Amino acid sequence: MIRRFWQRRRFMREHDWTHAHLSDYLDGELHGHHRDRVERHVGLCPECRRMLAGLRTTIRALMGLRHHADTDIAGGVIARLRSEP
Amino acid sequence: VPSSLLPGQIQTFARLRPARTSNRFIARKESFPASGVPTGVIMRRRLSPATDCEAVLRAPGPEPFALRSMSDIYAELALRALPGDRAERSSAPLILPDIEGWSTAEAATIMNLGEPAFKSRLERARLAVRALIAGYVPEGNA
Questions:
Q1: Does the beta-carbon distance from A58 to B140 stay under 8 Å?
Q2: Complex ipTM value
Q3: Strand-pair category, B10-16 with B41-46
């Protein structure tokens, strides 16, 4: 029972860490040990697998907007950010 | 909902008067309108994401919607419907790196944020978009 408790606790710690780093993982900003850590947990956790698939779909859809978006969308955003105090 | 309305566009109903009101302020304002200011009550409402979807699908565009993938349409809708009082501000972390292809460091600099703070906002924005398009876009395997 104690062993199960520690296993569960370790799993949840990995779960929280992976959850917080999925976005970085998809951006290719995790390397070496950190990347392996995410992949290992995603292999075990169905929730994180779903989340990763969802984020990947979202990012792909957002990248698809590059061809449809107005050409000066970034310019508008930057102008707005600069005009704010 | 009129089909000509685009997502995020504010529909304005001008010169609609309530039949009866007990609000003395409105009654006084209508009695003594300032010159040049249209009288009556101006009601504004912003379309919900679900209504937006219908309006966009029905609205005539520069190209037929069949040519655009559904995921594109819903991602576009989701971008406009991100929570926050300043839509451009809340979607800025998404627009710069994910749509415009900027690096996170460049986008963080332009937004006057540190990289960790920017990444945190980016992740929140992505999760918000994911939640909004979850029902419409099929999610593949990781």
A1: no
A2: 0.70
A3: antiparallel
